[in-house]
DNA sequence: TAAACTTATGTAAACGTTTACATTATTAAT
DNA sequence: ATTAATAATGTAAACGTTTACATAAGTTTA
């Protein structure tokens, strides 16, 4: 059906080896021959058979991206970042989220055991033992996004959560003048959440502010969770004058509660988030939050992975930390 | 490196043909042999080489999804839908959005010419001549999401925009009692936008409401566009009492302007959108909008494509229209 | 018990490339 | 003009499967 190099060889009166060399622009092919072959290939609308090429090269030019769920803009941005880099280097990306019918482990196993992808990028908030072992034992190159640095023979890219949380807390203190800053944490096993919490603690300490345990509330990174946490905080007898929600969605949950109580943001109570999702700019007042370069997370992971695929073990392991910045909204005084 | 069927054959003292048959659970293999072979495969941690298999089967079990840009939850949901169906049928999905470095045509060409994917799902708001020809001439099965039915030898899935727009306009009239309903349209070449506009017109006509050209404003499906359109409408001497924005993002733009002017939604002016994006439930008052089953769009397209891949031309062309529903928010009176 | 099936296995080709090695044609060096 | 070096091309194997066809082994049937 599809023309093959055999067909081209016949028409050009050369061997298939020469055709292959010509089409791949290898050296040692007379220019005339090369031109002729390319012309014929063009005429026949020739396209190389990828499977055949993969078979001999033992590469597929495909990278896999494993994530818990394709949802929310965060992952979307990361996907975009990976895709751009992949495309630029001649790779394709297969996205595999886990869902009702497929577990993360299953996906990962599939990607790593079969000679199906050249490398895998994994972005999961909490790496459990099983996943850890899977990754450590993998012959396929892996890059992990945003996990705790507990797998050290693997390249990683992550957000500097500590720095982000530290600076926004510091900002709330130094610039806005808040003194009683509460925090709504993220899920307990979530590494990002942990690091953010630590940044918050350090900032308080460095500013000689005592940590008040009543103002440290567990959250779950959902809006509902934000609402509940916020209403707990606002009904305390000694209530905080600012709330640092460990992600934007929870911060938006706070907005709801605060508005319902007829309080003013940022005068009665300041609010800050983390992530800088689009929504944070849609709401009023605009949310003060931490900008996370989501797409960059993807591009960096992509670069690292492709480098690893192409250079193998000659390159040493990289642990990349991507810094964040503050988005100065109006949900905090200034 | 990786064990092959050859290695298994050697250990089991059989030919590679038998191994292949045993592993693929084909008939005509003695049960003892089958069990033995499978045991050895297991021990060796054997995984079939996909490239080799693809080479002979001339299939890759990969489907491509082409979209203009991975952005916003709409596409995300569709991706999720496709992924689920694909996975269920043993396929993988490669997502290729166009971006700075890659045009839609380029992506499409890449997918359709090479024997790289078994089928392609295309979701682009406006199919131009070049794309049309590309699709019509494709030997690779294609399913188009949400485009005008102008390519008839291809399966399509689309939202019933007309019905959605008709019913929400009708709702604004019949249930909310609005009489002066303006519309903010979508981009001129966008097919969804056109159909929505037609639904609006029909609903007015069927309710014996005269169409007022001043209340028909061009929009562009962006928040900013919604703001501008809204402020134009609200400064008219004869201003509408309700606005139907052809997508939610523009409706949210309207909220901004209306709030700024100190007007009340839904009493001074009603607002309705289209798409039912998450955001529509975050804002207050909750937006009255048209629910679009985004994930279903993906699953249906996936099913159609895989069916086409596996059944070939024996199955006749399907043009599927997916109905929508109204989300009764508080941005309209009731 | 031979003939006729059926079942189980093997042989070898095919899929479409790439590439090591061999060969021939061309150019440079003496 | 002969030899040496280089450039261009060809030959054939290899990649790891699947599968048509051939063969061997086992089971009915008359």
Q: What portion of residues of chain A belong to β-strands?
A: 5-15%
Oligomer: homodimer
First CA to last CA of chain A: what distance? 69 Å
Q: How are the strands ordered across the major sheet of chain A?
A: 2-1-3-4-5-11
Number of helices of chain A: 13
Largest sheet of chain A: 6 strands, parallel
**Structural class estimated from helices and strands of chain A:** alpha/beta
Uncertain regions of chain A: pLDDT < 50 for 5+ in a row? none
Helix content of chain A: 40-55%
Radius of gyration of chain A: 26 Å
Order of helices and strands of chain A: HHHHEHEHEHEEHEHEHEHEHEHEE
Mean pLDDT of chain A, nearest integer?
92
Envelope shape of chain A: elongated
Account of the protein in words:
Two copies of one chain form a homodimer. Chain A is of the alpha/beta class and 334 residues long. In chain A, 45% of the residues lie in helices and 15% in strands. Chain A has 13 helices and twelve strands. In chain A, strands 2-1-3-4-5-11 form a six-stranded parallel beta sheet, with helices on both faces. A four-stranded parallel beta sheet of chain A has the order 7-6-8-9. In chain A, strands 10-12 form a two-stranded antiparallel sheet. In chain A, strand 8 (242-245), helix 11 (248-260) and strand 9 form a beta-alpha-beta unit. Chain A is elongated and about 90 Å long. In chain A, 48% of the residues are buried. The mean pLDDT of chain A is 92. The structure holds a DNA duplex (30 and 30 nucleotides).
